[in-house]
Amino acid sequence: MIKRPVKLAPSILTADFTHLADEIRAAEAGGADLLHLDVMDGIFVPNITFGPLVVKAVREITRLPLDVHLMIHEPDRYVADFVKAGADSLTVQAEACLHLHRTVQKINELGCRVGVAINPATEIETMREILPFVDMVLVMSVNPGFGGQKFIETSTSKLRRMRKLQDELNPTCDLEVDGGINVHNIDDVVGCGANVIVVGSAVYNKQGTVADNMAALRKAAER
Ligand code: DX5
Ligand code: ZN
Q1: Is 200 a pocket residue for ligand 1 (Cβ < 6 Å)?
Q2: Using CA of residue 92, residue 29, residue 23, residue 195, what is the dihedral sign?
Q3: Structurally, how many domains does the chain consist of?
Q4: Which is deepest, 32, 77, 135, 160, by most CB within 10 Å?
Q5: Domain around 63
Q6: 52 lines ligand 1 (CB under 6 A)
Q7: What is the pTM (predicted TM-score) of this model?
């Protein structure tokens, strides 16, 4: 297996939105590698968050690459808007796309990195034909829609199997994991081959500062 550096991608979903710029700068100062932005439409998932307008505003206040996770039905309609807003990568949910290859192609043509996410109940074989065309696979380790949910334990074995398929078909492809990651399980997911780790409520919570939380996660990831 290729040794890949672990990238931490804080998700702002549980951040204080009345002080969003400060919250993002704190993650950047704390050593974030990417910033994970969760876009939800109230149709694909039972929650609504924000759209390109907020992505554009975030783009103006940070140099971090913006890792935009589109939990929206038929995302083709909006991918150009998100690229224009400043997204560095766009990840679509396989389950939300009728013509996944077309969607991936469209994002590629826009000059943006492209990822495909799969839900906990979606089997890894769903990724086989699209893998050669993507820069990143995202394995959801909770059902998408909310921050602060419990990690689904079977996700570790799924990550291991996903990484194996990637090594076979697209070895340079990143493997991202999203949902329920904390200081207790981050080393497990890294050990299973995930190299881009989304951390939401483990970074933005009332128990600690963003800097302390990020430092603890980084240390735990290297265990
Ligand atoms: C869930 C989102 C996640 C979420 C992660 O639908 O995709 O990115 O913000 O939050 P935690 O780390 O709290 O599970
Ligand atoms: Zn996400």
Answers
A1: yes
A2: positive
A3: 1
A4: 32
A5: 7-221
A6: no
A7: 0.98
